[in-house]
Amino acid sequence: MKRFPKLMLLGLLSMAAALSSCEDNNDNGPTPPTPSGPTDSAGRVILTGEITSNRTLSANEKYLLQGNVYVTSGNTLTIPAGTKIFGDQATKGTLIIERGAKIMAEGTQNNPIIFTSAKAPGSRNYGDWGGVVLVGAAPTNRALTFLPEGGIRSLFGGTNAADNSGILKYARIEYAGVPLSTDPNSEINGLTLYGVGSGTTLDYIQVSYSGDDAFEWFGGTANAKHLVAFRNWDDDFDTDYGFTGKIQYGVSLRDPQYADQSGSNGFESDNFNPGTPANGTNDGLPLTAPVFSNMSVFVTAGAPVTTQQSGSGSYQSALHLRRNTSTSVYNSVFVGQPEGLRLDGTTTWANAQAGGLNLAGIVLANNNTPLRSANGTGTGAFTDADVQGWFNASGKNNSVVTGANLSTLGLNTNNFNLSAPNFLLQSSSSLLTGAVFTGKASDAFFTQGTFRGAFNGTDNWTQGWTNFDPQNTAY
Fold first, then answer.
1. What are phi and psi for residue 47, nearest 5 degrees?
2. What residue ranges in 231-327 does DSSP mark as E strands?
3. Are residues 282 and 225 both part of a single domain?
4. Measured distance CA(329)–CA(391) in Å, rounded
5. Do 200 and 102 share a structural domain?
6. Could you give the CA distance from residue 219 to residue 156 in angstroms, rounded to a whole number?
7. Exposure of 83 by Cβ count < 10 A (0-12 exposed, 13-18 middle, 19+ buried)?
8. Are residues 215 and 358 in the same domain?
9. Transmembrane ranges (predicted)?
């Protein structure tokens, strides 16, 4: 056997060790991309000020919103699937797509786009940053010089019902909803929509731990499907300023111990404050008249909570419909609020009597006071008994279920699980049948089925893209 000289053997061993060390450190792997702009201490590319030309982000980078970030008119911000965007707390980072601009943010079921807190896992909280705001040119009932809440500079609304603000699909918005000023009503919601038109695509969107509402529509005609509101602070689905869009398949799950000082509701709907006079276009008209179908709003299967151990206020109503609203809700289930339906004000009651405001296929369950009137005095006054008679009218297929009979709904055993909920119905559920698709719900936008609420027993449309434990997720 031929022998290597000792020095040659040592040299070969050293070379092998060096090669092994290189492989362990992955020095031969792909070179990380050079950041496309200034970065913060965590290496996230900073987005600040105005985006005044078309810009495409990269899923290989992480981004930090500092202050109000405006995508200006005529420009498009494209966000690929899997991109992660963080909101800065100190500067109340907020992404605002102005009127005439677009967002093209289309994630996938297995690779959603994520907007979240810049804080580390375990330290995130309600209202860590501003949120996502879309501003469009669709009709509203406010003057066209009216400005959004929270000091946002962008005028909204117009005459283009089909206005297109882009796409937001398979996206999560977490820990947003911070007050942007000390003025009343200065909060930004998880997703805020000002005068957004029906040309916009909104589908598969989750808002979690918002410090204000989950979703709020200020006028416009935008339609949406597959919305998830998870453990938010104030209202889940809030409509104002003449919103007339259509929404199908939405679910809310609340933490019973967190609510807002204003009284948290599943649905809150106003024409505007105070709701009248409604004299004409951009002056009270159009009336707020969205149509919702297949919504599920859950607080608790236990006794409805009227005082909170945490938060700043308490729960109020499953549906608080007030200030001359003409909203309609079909084929939906509401469980665990202290009140079920609160019809508020004589103008709201008049809209219900005229058929503009309608509820059908509705289940109110586990409420202390399922049906009530509010502020119904003077001309047009109405009572709790009037509301009950209207709600229970023939053909509506509405029902009230007591807490003692909640099991008849056949909800999933994990329906109220705050870390791993499952909303699919049991095969025995009474909600699998009884849907009503008449009147406004007969519109072609709505997929007609037999079940009430957002889920049947087989199609879990939250699977793959949602996250019900964002506090412990390392982004």
1. -110, 125
2. 237-240, 246-253, 267-269, 280-281, 284-285, 291-298, 317-321
3. no
4. 12
5. yes
6. 9
7. buried
8. no
9. none
Question: Residue 297 falls within a domain, yes or no?
Answer: yes
Count of beta carbons in the 10 Å neighbourhood of residue 375:
17
Q: Compute the distance between CA of residue 12 and CA of residue 5 in angstroms, rounded to an integer.
A: 11
Specify if 179 maps to a domain: yes
Query: Chain-centre distance of CA 3, in angstroms?
Result: 74
What are the phi and psi torsion angles at 339 (to 5°)? -110, 150
Q: Single out the residue in 206, 233, 260 at which a domain terminates.
A: 233
Looking at the whole model, is its pTM more than 0.90?
yes
Angle between helix 384-391 and helix 346-354 axes, rounded to 10 deg: 30
Contacts by 57-63 with C-beta closer than 8 Å and gap 24+? 57/83, 57/85, 58/33, 58/83, 59/83, 60/33, 61/33, 61/35, 61/36, 62/86, 62/475
Enclosing domain of residue 314:
272-465
What residues are paired with 79 via a beta bridge? Answer: 105
Q: What is the mean pLDDT of each run of 10 residues along the chain (475 residues)?
A: 37 38 42 78 97 98 98 98 98 97 98 98 97 98 94 96 98 90 74 98 98 97 98 96 98 94 94 97 98 98 79 89 98 97 97 98 98 87 96 97 97 97 98 98 98 98 98 97
The Cα–Cα gap between 8 and 14 comes to 10
Compute the distance between CA of residue 40 and CA of residue 33 in angstroms, rounded to an integer.
16
**In this structure, what token pair is assigned to residue 23?**
């492989």
Query: For residue 31, is it within any domain?
Result: no
Shared-domain flag, residues 400 and 309: yes
Q: Is the dihedral of CA 10, 11, 16, 22 positive or negative?
A: positive
What's 111's DSSP letter?
Answer: B
CA atoms lying within 13 Å on the CB side of residue 415:
30
Residues 314 and 298: beta-carbon distance below 8 Å: no
In angstroms, rounded to a whole number, what is the distance separating the alpha carbons of residues 286 and 385? 30
Distance from C-alpha of 241 to C-alpha of 195, rounded to nearest angstrom: 9
For Cα atoms 99, 204, 444, give the angle at the middle one, nearest 5 degrees: 80
Q: How many structural domains is the chain composed of?
A: 2
Distance CA 178, CA 94 (A): 9
Task: Tell me, yes or no, whether 397 lies in a domain.
Answer: yes
